[in-house]
Amino acid sequence: MKKRSLLRATLAAIVAAGVVSPATPAVAAEYRPQPILYIAAEPGCYSLTLYSKKKVPLGAPKRIFRVSCYSKHHYEIYWAGRMNTRPGNPIPESKESLNLCNAMSETLQIYRRDTRSYNFGPNESTVIGNWLPDKGPEAKRYPKRTVCMYGVSTTEYGFLKEISEPLVRGLE
After folding, report:
1. pLDDT tens string 36-76
2. Which residues contact 30 (CB under 8 A, 6 or more apart)?
3. Whole domain around residue 123: which residue ranges?
4. Residue 150 located in a structural domain
């Protein structure tokens, strides 16, 4: 009897001290990366979707997720910044910005076919693209901004394929 009451008193003291609570809810925080606006992206690897998707439409997305270059991703952004535009125009010309992205890509070291980084299929090709801000609030918030990206597409250039290794050296 004395042992039982001593045990109850000890357990009551432990619970009262907050060391152990009788009904502790399971606390589990799930990490979910927050998407960012495509025009705000900095150099690195990005995925259009939070979960794996084999291919995505080629075009400017609205939101993208920053991921490791060794995890599944669709885009590799190798340059992002401001470029000169005509006075009064906050949006760069599409052709001029694509020429800038092409010029910037010439200095890149790209993993090519027959490397361990990515095993290209017979109908696959690398793609260089650029993103510009939309007219309105994006152009006001990100004036003169251009984002240059690199990816893998089929030779029809309708989709970007998901890859799990970096294509651009230095982004790893």
Report:
1. 999 999 999 999 988 888 888 887 789 999 999 888 899 99
2. none
3. 33-161
4. yes
